[in-house]
Design brief:
Layout: E1 5-9, H1 14-25, E2 29-34, H2 37-46, E3 53-57, H3 63-77, E4 82-85, H4 100-128, E5 131-135, H5 148-166, E6 173-179, H6 197-208, E7 218-221
Parallel strand pairs: 1-2, 1-4, 2-3, 4-5, 5-6, 6-7
Length: 228
């Protein structure tokens, strides 16, 4: 059987890059997608070069890019076994903060982009009876004052359950990953007591490593000292 393939959006840094390293360590060939190609290519070289890791520039809000990402993965490796829908970013809290342009980009990336990744890769996941994971957030389970970002993550949480129900009889597993504070480019300065991206990557690999009849639907991971 060919070695399995693990596709990750938002793979150029943070949780995505850490998960790519863990997936490669676990024996997966990896497909790395993000808008920043230079960083992706450096990571792909670290993880074994073109025979083990592909770097694919992808704007997740563009359907043509998403189709090309799935096609490139299948052309190169012949299958897709795990998809980690991880691309996303935040905005300052407050409905008078940030800019409408930033809001639009965030909503399109976090919600529409996630849906496009599912649409582009679901046929391959059905073929492999694979695993779909989505990065939601603690903010996708509780309302945060003034947070449009939280609203996008509530949408991801709902999307994860909606697709789980849709694929229930196909063998495809679906997992929501819900991090608390993590030291990623999301924050300008490291929050006190924050998790490392690798802490979340280990949770992702845990879910994927379960037997096929076990679907870990949600993993909520907070720092020990995070109150909310």
């Amino acid at each position: 059987m060919p070695e399995p393939v693990f596709l990750i959006t938002g793979a150029s840094s943070g949780i995505g890059a850490a998960t790519a390293r863990r997936a490669a360590e676990a024996g997966y060939r990896v497909v790395l997608a993000a808008r920043r190609l230079e960083q992706l290519e450096e990571l792909a070289q670290e993880l074994g070069g073109s025979q083990r890791a592909l770097a694919v520039r992808c704007d997740v809000t563009e359907w043509d890019d998403q189709q090309a990402l799935a096609g490139t993965a299948l052309d190169a490796f012949g299958r897709i076994d795990v998809v980690f829908v991880n691309a996303g970013f935040g905005a300052p809290r407050g409905f008078l903060e940030s800019t409408p342009e930033h809001w639009k980009s965030m909503v399109l990336t976090n919600v529409y982009g996630a849906a496009l990744t599912i649409r582009a890769t679901l046929p391959a996941l059905k073929d492999s009876r694979g695993h779909l994971l989505l990065t939601s957030s603690v903010a996708g389970r509780r309302v945060l004052s003034g947070s449009l970002y939280a609203a996008t993550k509530w949408a991801v949480t709902a999307m994860g359950e909606a697709v789980r129900q849709e694929v229930n009889d196909t063998g495809v597993r679906v997992t929501l990953i819900e991090p608390g504070m993590v030291d990623t480019p999301f924050f300008n300065e490291r929050p006190d007591g924050a998790l490392d991206p690798d802490d979340i990557a280990r949770a992702v690999v845990y879910a994927v490593a379960q037997p096929p009849h076990v679907d870990v639907n949600e993993i909520l991971v907070r720092p020990t000292a995070q109150r909310h």
